[in-house]
Amino acid sequence: MTTTPPEPRVVILGAGFGGLAAARALKRAPVRVTIVDRSNHHLFQPLLYQVATAALSPADIAAPIRRIFRGQRNVSVVLAEAVAVDTASNQVILSDGSLDYDILIVATGAGHAYFGHDDWAASAPGLKTLHDALVIRQRVLLAFELAERETDLARRRASMTFVIVGGGPTGVELAGTLAEVSRQTLARDFRAIDTASTRVILVETGPRVLPAFDEDLSAAARQQLETLGVTVWTGVRATDINDSGLTVGGERIAARTILWAAGVQASPIARSFNVPLDQVGRVIVTPELLAPGSENIYVIGDLAHIEQEGSLVPGVAPAAMQQGAHAVQNLLATLRGEPRAPFHYRDKGLLATIGRGAAVAQIGPIKTSGLPAWLLWLFVHILFLIGFRNRLVVFIQWAWSYVTFDRGARLITDPLAAQRARHQDQPAPPPQDQPPAPGVGPA
Amino acid sequence: MTTTPPEPRVVILGAGFGGLAAARALKRAPVRVTIVDRSNHHLFQPLLYQVATAALSPADIAAPIRRIFRGQRNVSVVLAEAVAVDTASNQVILSDGSLDYDILIVATGAGHAYFGHDDWAASAPGLKTLHDALVIRQRVLLAFELAERETDLARRRASMTFVIVGGGPTGVELAGTLAEVSRQTLARDFRAIDTASTRVILVETGPRVLPAFDEDLSAAARQQLETLGVTVWTGVRATDINDSGLTVGGERIAARTILWAAGVQASPIARSFNVPLDQVGRVIVTPELLAPGSENIYVIGDLAHIEQEGSLVPGVAPAAMQQGAHAVQNLLATLRGEPRAPFHYRDKGLLATIGRGAAVAQIGPIKTSGLPAWLLWLFVHILFLIGFRNRLVVFIQWAWSYVTFDRGARLITDPLAAQRARHQDQPAPPPQDQPPAPGVGPA
Q1: pLDDT attached to residue B232
Q2: Per-residue pLDDT at A409
Q3: To bridge B60 with a disulfide, which of A172, A376, B56, B212 should be the other Cys (CB 3.0-4.6 Å)?
């Protein structure tokens, strides 16, 4: 176990799109590859919102890392949390050990940023992991259950108010899908409440949603959101977030469910490199994707800050995959004694989905929205889903829910969640004062 | 909300097979139905072991109760925990309120029994709910991850030892499937361990597995288990269960994963009825399925103790469904002023699955095992799965895993589970003494 192999040891931190692409590019290379990830699966993050909104199951958008590399014998997978890198001794420090490397590829990505209000995290969960998605799914489903049993109209209204903070792709996807869920999926499931009266509010601090797109597509996206029933507020900031609601542009909104889709914070491991970071903690890499001043540490994906023609390479899957492949080309070149090449990002365009048959697409000069954009989005995402089985199952479930508006994964799996939610709502009063069920008298 | 409707109020506790059948039988009845369940979904329990062993996702075997009754307007669903019944005032006491009834149908089923050793529950989880299944899935997957990083051979062996306590259908299903997972599914996924050396031990106190079947089928089941690589121990008792292992017939077995599939304990709510219960807490009902001395409380499913031709009606889904329909016939008869009829169980036979192409079936005089029994089992279970979508998706996933031995739901979704598991294993030593990753030196 502790013998040093003859081949160089390449350690890849993170099994996201970047890390996966790097490991695959090393398939026939004379190196020993170790992938370290704190979860045992690669996550197809672009569809994570579908798990959070109960359309897909976690297994539909995640693949065990070991299964992906089953056939690549020079790869071993370690389930562990990398907490720091000792660049002097070429060691990765794990939460429960350490790992020597000759060449390191860091692809640990980014998480949420609450702009210095980490206390908001408990009231406004973000969406980065499967765990996040299951937490959000549970909150959303419980909100309707609580509203159904709620007799106090103000509290019922708060239970049926969903606020999404952040008008980027994730915020737009969540807002559009929640509007569909409330108006279509749940329409006939409840007796006491009219789910069509659910308020879904999307709050964006900037002047428009999907700022990465051209203005006309942002406008098209907003129009499609409003058609679905989403209230879009731009140019206002969300503050004072707690379990009772939030303040938007001075107005207090009582909302039981607040979702966070704003702000990015790069993985904290970069701080241990002792290199300059940008304002969100990304490593400002060299054109060859190296950490500044290092010869054997490559940084790729959402953790890398690299500019091209004056603008930042976006934190999207295609960029991460291109960087993973390029970092491998460079490290193999150095092993052959050849020079490294600078990275060039090939922009594949931008796609964002809003809801059923609603999306926007911007590919070079081509701009489209509505059904054609949505079909393109659907095609691309199913195409890239890892593993044939997932593709087929996901396609069937989409086809099914497209026809029926049904969502199969509407499960509250935590047995105590409902009670906790109720008690969180009203800690003070004794049971008999709690909102009774339909047709109910006090105990 | 609190107005009393003209029709009688029928409250059904539990949305299992019995409660569901009762509610459906009331479809066109002039009554107001309220279904109370602590989870928001009906669970297809016969396939729960497939979730626990990562073949299926929770959503594949569960359907939201609200969706099932979307079209049945006289049904409302309440997500709540029923803790007691006040038979004097005809009230169900919820953990957060109460609910009046005119007629009550109790179908809250049964849970595990640890024979007075409830302290074993933490070390040997049972399999009754989706939550249980996800806990077991996580433990099983983590056990292999820990073994892969473990350098101490004794600890590695303990991590690769799985003991299932109880030789009934659930125990046999879990043991057979875990043997398949270790020998087929994971065969090429690990580098440091040979998963084919995994020990799967099935412990049964009685003289044979599947005691409900005829002896020759029990023998066939045992033979099929052993062919899959399961060690079957009968006539021995498991004792002294803790996180390090258990004692079986005097011998101490170091095992990191122990699963509990023995013992049944009826739902505790029956204790509040003040009626005679059998030794596992079931209500000894009248032939009309009434609680003794009551005119408006029916008890059905696993919670009901009823004998027929001298033997207990088994706690299986068909019996619960027949009882649900029969209880409704009786309550509707009394509403019409007609007499109640006694319940007669129509035995549909017994089916138990062991693994891929391995099962036993006993239907009246017909007895079969192996592939034909398995195909019959597959057909019956897919047929009864609730909801077309589930049927189709489950069928595809089975077809897929049958061909490839793959299991799609191998996900550890709790981000901290791995670390907790490591620390649970070795609380004492500081990080640098913890078992290192492959090719690793001390920090």
Answers
A1: 98
A2: 76
A3: B56
Which of A78, A434, A437 is opposite residue B437, by nearest beta carbon?
A: A78
**How many CB atoms sit inside 10 A of residue B383's CB?**
8
Q: Strand order of the sheet with strand B257-260?
A: B230-234, B199-204, B161-165, B257-260
Hey, are the CB atoms on B413 and A192 less than 8 Å from each other?
no
Site of tokens 């006040």? B86
Rounded distance between C-alpha atoms, residue A284 and residue A277, angstroms = 6
In angstroms, the CA B299 to CA B277 distance is 12
H/E element holding A148? helix A130-149
Count of all residues that appear for chain B in the document: 443
Interface test with B, best of A57, A131, A398 (most B CBs within 10 A): A57
**What residues of chain B, 113 to 152, have a C-beta less than 8 Å from chain A?**
129-131, 134, 141, 145, 148-149, 151
Q: How many whole angstroms separate alpha carbon B80 and alpha carbon B77?
A: 9
Q: Of A308, A283, A307, which Cα lies nearest the Cα of A297?
A: A283
Taking the CA of residue A35 and the nearest CA in chain B, the distance in Å comes to 11
Average pLDDT over chain B reads: 88
Burial (Cβ within 10 Å: 0-12, 13-18, ≥19) of residue B405: middle
What is the mean pLDDT of the segment spanning A86-90? 96
CB-based contact (8 Å) between B32 and chain A?
yes
pLDDT digits (tens, 9 = 90+) for A384-436: 776 655 666 777 776 666 666 667 677 777 655 555 655 554 433 333 333 33
Q: State the CB neighbour count (10 A cutoff) for residue A244.
A: 15
Which residue in A5, A60, A186 is closest to B439 by CB distance? Answer: A5
Predicted-complex ipTM score: 0.84
- B39/A contact by beta carbon, under 8 A: yes
CB-based contact (8 Å) between B100 and chain A?
yes
3-state secondary structure of A368: strand
Lookup: tokens for B443: 């920090």
pTM of the model: 0.87
Instruction: Enumerate the residues of chain B whose CB falls inside 8 A of the CB of residue A71.
Output: 188
Rounded CA-CA distance A269/B238 in Å is 46
Q: Does B392 touch chain A (CB under 8 A)?
A: yes
Q: Which of A148, A272, A440 to mutate to test the interface with B (most CBs of B within 10 A)?
A: A440
B407-437 tens-digit pLDDT: 667 777 765 555 565 555 443 333 333 333 3
- The backbone torsions φ and ψ at residue B407, rounded to the nearest 5 degrees and listed phi first, read -130, 115
Strand, coil or helix: what is B315? coil
Residue A369 CA to residue A363 CA, distance in Å, equals 12
Count of CB pairs separated by less than 8 Å, A with B: 258
**Class of residue A119 by CB neighbours under 10 A (exposed 0-12, middle 13-18, buried 19+):** exposed
Share of chain A above pLDDT 70, in %: 87
Spatial CB neighbours of A212, under 8 Å, sequence gap ≥ 6: A168, A169, A314, A350
Sequence-distant (≥ 6) Cβ neighbours of residue B284 within 8 angstroms: B275, B276, B277, B278, B292, B305, B306
Residues 394-423 of B with CB under 8 A from A: 396-397, 400, 406, 408-415, 418-419, 422-423
- Within an 8 Å CB–CB cutoff, is residue B428 touching chain A? no
Find the radius of gyration of the CA atoms of chain A: 23
Q: Any residues with CB less than 8 A from the CB of A362 and at least 6 apart, and which?
A: A213, A214, A217, A349, A350, A351
